[in-house]
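Progress narrative, Year 2. Work on CBS domain-containing protein from Streptomyces subrutilus advanced from sequence curation to structure prediction during this period.
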Amino acid sequence: MTLVQMQQRPANAPVAPRTVDDVMEAAGPQVCDDMTVEVALAVMASARADHLLVCDEDGLCTGLVTQSQLAAIRDSAAYTDRVRLRAVLGDRGPFASPATTMAEADHAMRYRRLDALPVVDEQGSALGVLALAR
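Result:
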């Protein structure tokens, strides 16, 4: 048996809050916003991913789509095989920065009922995804 010496932290020592950067996953598959819903579902299936990051023609992250979102759109009465991801996403966001605290991200995800949140840098490029634990 090996003994490990540990130091106790003083009770009044400040604890640095954990940030999104500490726990985010790699960005994973990224697709362009001019892709159709049908093709995006195929990409998602082949990548065995639950979500895709969506980028514009400049490579900036415009949002995230999930398999359940796309399946619901495909199954709707108004669906055609020409529906593009940019039409599904609407407004940009929401996003987190790597410096966002986990408490802030947790609150935002619960408030908006999100399973995953894109993490972007100052320019808007995707760095990763913050996903709820399964």
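The two ends are 35 Å apart (CA to CA). Strands lie at 25-26, 30-32, 51-55, 61-66, 116-120, 126-131.
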